[in-house]
């Protein structure tokens, strides 16, 4: 009986370990809260996955001198040299960070996330992360943050990416629902932001209605007295050991 019980416990333990190894997490990221009386502060982060550039958002950021962190893929960089030149011409506003080589989820086992096949192995995760970094270094810049496609990972892939030298950028407010929200809904998401929030949106979908809502949301926060910082300019706290 004791032998059978021990075997059952081993099976349960092994199953739990296997489940933990494959469980997907979507890390949170927040800025350190401001002192009482200080202006509320948020970080705007934009993904540039593929396709083109949303000039509405880019113009609003530049015209209003609003800093932001831009996560670019290597494949987006190949098609948007003019926008990249604009980013580099405003180093006080934009920091350019790693969104991967081909917009493949940085998950180290085979799985489909939102219909996108994950990297599927540690070797493929390394290829995705390193390829995105190399493209940015080729622009004369040095990335410090990584955000994978879909923003989902396993704990083991988080550890691997951290060992490669990157903090992982989660978020606390999804500003545009993957750029699929309507303008009013996106503006409402931005309006929900509180001091310390890290907002995610997209800057690569110029034909989507969400973009105009993102612009309105940004300008409304500015009108309310919110301050904006890039990730490298703030003190952050990320869940799932993504930053500490």
What does this structure look like?
The structure is a single chain. The chain is of the alpha/beta class and 244 residues long. The chain is 38% helix and 19% strand. It contains eight helices and 14 strands. The strands form five sheets. Strands 3, 4, 5, 11, 12 and 13 form a six-stranded parallel beta sheet that branches. It has a two-stranded antiparallel ribbon with strand order 1-9. A two-stranded antiparallel ribbon has the order 2-14. Strand 6 and strand 7 (116-117) form a beta hairpin. Helix 7 (183-191) runs parallel beside helix 8. The model is unreliable at 4-19 (pLDDT under 50).
Question: What is the strand and helix layout of this fold?
Answer:
Layout: H1 2-22, E1 24-25, E2 29-31, E3 41-48, H2 55-63, E4 68-72, H3 74-79, H4 81-89, E5 94-98, E6 112-113, E7 116-117, H5 122-137, E8 145-146, E9 153-154, H6 155-163, E10 167-168, E11 173-174, H7 183-191, E12 198-202, H8 210-223, E13 227-229, E14 236-238
What's the average pLDDT?
Answer: 92
How many helices? The count is 8
- Euclidean distance between termini CA atoms: 45 Å
Structural class: alpha/beta
Give start-end ranges of low-pLDDT stretches: 4-19
Oligomer: single chain
Proportion of β residues? 15-25%
Using DSSP, what is the number of strands? 14
Q: Helices and strands, in N-to-C order?
A: HEEEHEHHEEEHEEHEEHEHEE
Largest sheet: 6 strands, parallel
- Morphology call: globular
Helix content: 25-40%
Rg, rounded, reads: 19 Å
Overview in brief:
The protein is globular and about 45 Å long. The chain is 38% helix and 19% strand.
């Amino acid at each position: 009986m004791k032998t059978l019980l021990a075997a059952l416990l081993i099976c349960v333990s092994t199953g739990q370990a296997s489940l933990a190894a494959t469980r997907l997490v979507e890390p949170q990221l927040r800025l350190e809260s401001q002192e009482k009386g200080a202006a509320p502060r948020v970080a705007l982060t934009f993904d540039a996955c593929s396709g083109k550039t949303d000039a509405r958002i880019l113009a609003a950021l530049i015209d209003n001198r609003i800093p932001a962190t831009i996560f670019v893929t290597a494949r987006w960089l190949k098609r948007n040299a003019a926008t990249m030149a604009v980013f580099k011409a405003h180093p006080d506003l934009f920091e350019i960070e790693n969104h991967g080589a081909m917009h493949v989820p940085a998950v180290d086992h085979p799985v489909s996330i939102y219909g996108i096949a994950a990297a599927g192995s540690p070797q493929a995760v390394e290829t995705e992360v390193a390829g995105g970094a190399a493209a940015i270094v080729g622009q004369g810049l040095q990335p410090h943050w990584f955000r994978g496609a879909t923003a989902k990972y396993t704990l083991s892939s988080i550890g691997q990416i951290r060992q490669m030298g990157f903090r992982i950028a989660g978020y606390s407010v999804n500003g545009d629902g993957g750029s699929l929200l309507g303008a009013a809904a996106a503006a409402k998401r931005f309006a929900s932001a509180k001091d310390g929030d890290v907002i995610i949106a997209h800057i690569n979908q110029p034909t989507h209605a969400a973009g105009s809502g993102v612009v309105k949301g940004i300008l409304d926060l500015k009108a309310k007295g919110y301050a904006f910082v890039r990730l490298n300019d703030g003190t952050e706290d990320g869940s799932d050991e993504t930053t500490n």
